[in-house]
Design brief:
Layout lengths: L1 E7 L3 H12 L3 E8 L6 H14 L7 E2 L14 H4 L23 H11 L4 E5 L4 H9 L7 E7 L15 H5 L1 H10 L4 E4 L1 H6 L4 H8 L4 H17 L2 H6 L9 H10 L4 E11 L10 E4 L10 E7 L1 H11 L2
Parallel strand pairs: 1-2, 1-4, 2-3, 4-5, 5-6, 6-9
Antiparallel strand pairs: 7-8, 7-9
This protein binds beta-D-ribofuranose.
Length: 317
């Protein structure tokens, strides 16, 4: 089984990511570490427990991580995910935060990886604050990972949060910089433009959501708001493909789960702009090796969408 830690900021696509991982018999989730991001940390914690409750998997350890970026001003994505991060449809019987682990997320991450050297895959779908703190506390942490799968950044300077910045990187540019600089394990990146280009047809989404199960019902409910937003004319201008369903975070998990999911990729040195008036938080690709850095990231370009569909279908069964 693949040993996975998910570092997330549960929003709608993070919820789908957890469900995809839970549905896969070859995945063992060692823990879920929460970070600020789509919504304030307190919501992220509640939302994560809500998803686990729907899946009857409250046995998975959930940890409290960083509540704010290293230096940047806090920002959230309430317009898309809802103020509460899950479409603003509260569950009156949501599990309480007493179910959280006592240990803090970053320490737990370091411990879990130390106990399973070379075996743990880290799937990161939030701002990278927890990961940046982890490497500061334990510089050997990244070397002990089997792989890192990030949803974040952009490859053609098209943004969704600033002119050319993607949300997870813009929400904590310094953290993204530290991670891209220090994580020398195989690092896969699902950028914003990549997820837009590899979106699924809305017709798939309709059939998928129509499944008559509690999980499908939950997904239908929490994604109403983000779906409306995603299908709005303004949003379609923002995405580079225009009109598909792209559940961004799920791509990172799908790649981590199935080694044959990525069908086209590019290996490039990457870093993050920290200063530009318009470009702060933008991922920069060093095709001409000006940065003289040895470690290249694996930028996802194309994937097997049939495999993704199957994973999504299984997740709601
Ligand atoms: C990323 O930002 C968030 O809104 C999504 O959950 C995803 O992680 C896309 O830019």
């Amino acid at each position: 089984k693949k040993k996975v830690i998910i570092d997330l900021d549960t929003g709608v696509d993070d919820a789908m990511t957890i469900m995809v991982a839970l549905a896969n018999p070859n995945v063992e989730i060692l823990g879920i570490t929460c970070c600020h991001g789509n919504t304030p940390l307190e919501n992220v914690l509640k939302n994560t427990l809500r998803v686990l409750k729907v899946c009857n998997r409250l046995d998975i350890p959930v940890y409290r991580g960083c509540s704010k970026p290293l230096l940047a001003r806090k920002q959230h994505a309430g317009d898309y995910h809802g103020k509460d991060g899950l479409g603003d449809v509260p569950d009156p019987d949501a599990p309480g935060l007493e179910l959280l682990q006592k240990e803090k997320a970053v320490l737990a991450m370091i411990k879990l990886v130390k106990e399973n050297p070379g075996e743990v895959i880290l799937v990161a779908t939030a701002p990278l604050t927890n990961l940046a703190v982890a490497v500061q506390l334990d510089p050997s942490f990244p070397k002990k990972l089997k792989g890192l799968y990030i949803m974040g950044g952009n490859m053609e300077s098209r943004g969704n949060t600033t002119v050319c910045g993607e949300f997870n990187f813009v929400a904590d540019p310094e953290a993204a910089y530290v991670v891209l600089d220090h994580y020398t394990c195989p690092t896969y990146i699902a950028t914003w433009e990549f997820t837009c280009r590899n979106s699924l047809p809305w017709s798939f989404c309709d059939t998928w959501f129509a499944e008559n199960t509690p999980k499908a019902e939950f997904m239908r409910t929490i994604s109403c708001l983000s779906r409306k937003k995603a299908q709005s004319a303004d949003y379609q201008k923002e995405t580079t493909t225009g009109n598909g369903f792209n559940s961004c975070d799920v791509y990172a998990m799908a790649a981590a789960i199935d080694d044959t999911f990525i069908t086209e990729h590019e290996e490039v040195v990457v870093t993050v702009e920290l200063e530009g008036t318009y470009t702060r938080g933008m991922m920069v690709l060093d095709y001409i090796q000006k940065l003289k850095k040895a470690h290249k990231a694996i930028i996802m370009k194309k994937v097997d969408l049939e495999k993704l569909k199957q994973m999504l279908i299984n997740a709601l069964k």
